[in-house]
Amino acid sequence: MPASHPSPAVDRPSSRHRALVLHALAFLAYLALTLFYMRPAAQVLGTHLAPDSGDPLFNLVVLKWGIHEMRTGMHGFWNLPFFFPARDVTTYSDHLLGPAAFATFFTAVVPNPLAAYNLLFLGSFVLCGFNTWYVLRRCGAGIAAAFLGGCMFAFLPFRWDQMSHVQVLLMHWIPVTLWSWDRLLAGPTWKRAAAFFVFYVLHVTGGTYLGYMIHFPMLVLLLYRAPALLPRERLRPALKILLPTGLAAGLVLAGVYVPYLRAAGHQARTPLEIQVFGASLVSYLTPTTSNLYGSLAETWRRPENCLFPGFLLTVLAVLAARRGWQRLRTPPARPLSPPRRITILLLAGLAAVAWVVGELRVWEIAGALTAPEIPGLGGHRLGVLTLAAGVLALCLRRLWGGNQPLRLKDLDPWERGLLVSGLLCFLLTFPLVYLPLMRVLPGLSGMRVPARFSAFVFFPLVYFAARELDRWKLGRLVVGLIAVFLLLEVMPTPVNWEPLESEARFPAVDHWLARQYDVTALLELPLEDNSADIVAMYHATLHWKPLVNGYSGYIPAHYADLQRNCCYPLPDPEQLQRLRNWGVTHVLLRKNVLDTRWKRRRAWRWAAEPGISIEYEYKHDRVYRIGR
Q: Which of 102, 236, 429, 523 has the highest count of CB atoms within 10 angstroms of its CB?
């Protein structure tokens, strides 16, 4: 063979080497962009927290609890020591089990949990970009389209809006989990099973929301791949791999979610919460305040509803949808008679009217509009009517028309599954669809933010937008201009980094508590607001004594009642007896509760009451024992 035509044996390593180089360069590019957008993150990695000291500080507490438990045997992991005497408190929010495993290894080398948290926080942006790039490249996308697709997914406006919720930012395993699942179904091998299992475990142990939600797109992908697996000659060898993999994945899933199921009886979400934190069509036009153009949506912005994906991504997605419609649309195989056509149109119109009413009800809760009252269609019934009318219209179109409105079989099963799963998750972001389904599907009733299903809408959106961009075959100059526009569009406003006190600088009383072995449970006063409770929890990470105080996704009734009625500035006899009955042995009085003379006099008189004694006092921080 002439020297000018290298053999495949030479070509293959050369091609693999080039791919590795491109992967490394892409990773470094996403890292550089993340550090630039998050500046000065590299300088404050172990000392500051972004973007505030509310939910991020709470998540840091949960992460530190996971580290503590992994070092001591995991015997009490599900009993986060807050809201005493409540049990299974870890299930009140996201467990962060996988991130805690990473942080445990990290802090064994660098003893700084805050630095571990910030690495998870920043790493989510880098890995979101890189994993999207990797999947797009494996699907045949060009370098420019794959890289820009990674940027679109990594720096989504939705992600800037979720910076306080690291458990939602951990979206980076979505692309590779879905891709490896599809590859496993397309051709089951032990190598593919191992790859899928690793990504699946990393994803479902990252947090409850995304860990639960990914099973909807996985189910859709399974349905589209199943027909090719059903022939007997393929089914038996496939089951030898799929069944053990499914069993192993099921065991992981049970270990993570059985505690949540056990606690589900007293933690179900109300329809009002679903409507407050569910999406509307306007949500997908609402940019986050972190966007350069975020001020455009001040009048209609709602919490957890900044779902506008960006101008470039929207334009590309619309063009991809237009191309797909032209390619896949099919007229009825059998002509529809006027009565049948009118029936289908009436059903579709009924579904549309019900949808509009549902949208108005969401905005009625926000105080912006008034929704008409329809007798018999309160609660979830409006959603049932909408779904029933829409599904019936599609079924009649298929039955009477002789074919589907879209030729989805013309798509590859992977792309077909992505498209349908994205549409399904889009519908699940709306309370109108979510409310009736939460009554019949286990797990949905435990989540209050349906809008977070949009994480599984954005990945298909990015995928098809990147593939559309790849079809254009643009010159380097135009690609460069598009890249500049995208990187400017996704650039956030300056990220706030707040300094956070280290354990060495915690108040002296917390160091004293860490040395006491007879503190069964502790109430910290004053009971002010959630921010004070989060700080109390953070200080408790030094000693891990059970606290009556707490903050989480759920606030148990006994603590909500205590916040309303207790301790001005100290418990009255009835409240004190309730604390003793719970098993509380100590009360910590922080110095800011004694800011007036009458409070200080009351505190001294309280110490003279039977069974109460002062065990610690320093700089106005005081610890009382409340013996029986």
A: 523
